[in-house]
Amino acid sequence: MRTTLIVGAWLLVAIPALAQEDDVDCANTMTQADMNICSNKDYETADAELNKVYKQTVAAMKAKDKELADISADYVGAEEALKKAQRAWIGYRDGQCELAGFEARGGSMEPMLVSGCLAQLTTARTKELKELLEPTEN
Q1: Dihedral, CA atoms, 87, 91, 94, 99, nearest 10 degrees?
Q2: pLDDT, tens only, 25-50
Q3: Which residue ranges make up each domain of the chain?
Q4: Which residues of 51-81 are buried (b: 16+ CB within 10 A; e: fewer)?
Q5: Burial of 33 (0-12, 13-18, 19+ CB in 10 A)
Q6: First-to-last CA distance in the chain?
Q7: Do residues 16 and 89 touch, judged by C-beta distance below 8 A?
């Protein structure tokens, strides 16, 4: 019973906020809340692109490992190196963007600063991953 009341109360608070997100014109934000929502949308878009490109990059590194295995087992490891780098990058991104939020710690701008940082770093990482997909010229 208590869980039902808690979930019900959360829904009463969350549903209007979720509905508001659809109504925000991100090309013409007027309030800090709108800027926070739009900044988060930018991050979500960047994150979706990163996940798509990361999957492509993992597949490319698997293929590279398969090619290199024909030469020598000692050459294999591109996929594992990519995963190691990605895990390290996620830790860096999260820490760096948490730090960016301290510029307005506890204020209404903090979510926008964090989301903006997340979007910026995620877009940059996506570019790095795309570069791994491009064939190198000898």
Answers
A1: -160
A2: 999 999 999 999 999 999 999 999 99
A3: 26-133
A4: eebbeebbebbeebbeeeeeeeeeebebbee
A5: middle
A6: 68
A7: no
78-101 and 32-71 helices, crossing angle to 10°: 160
Burial (CB count <10 Å: 0-12, 13-18, 19+), residue 118: buried
Question: Does CATH number 1.20.1270.180 belong to domain 26-133?
Answer: yes
Helix ranges (DSSP H) in the chain? 2-23, 32-71, 78-101, 110-133
Which residues fall within 8 angstroms of residue 78, CB to CB, at 6 or more apart? 61, 62, 64, 65, 68
| pLDDT, tens only, 72-112 | 887 889 999 999 999 999 999 999 999 999 999 999 999 99
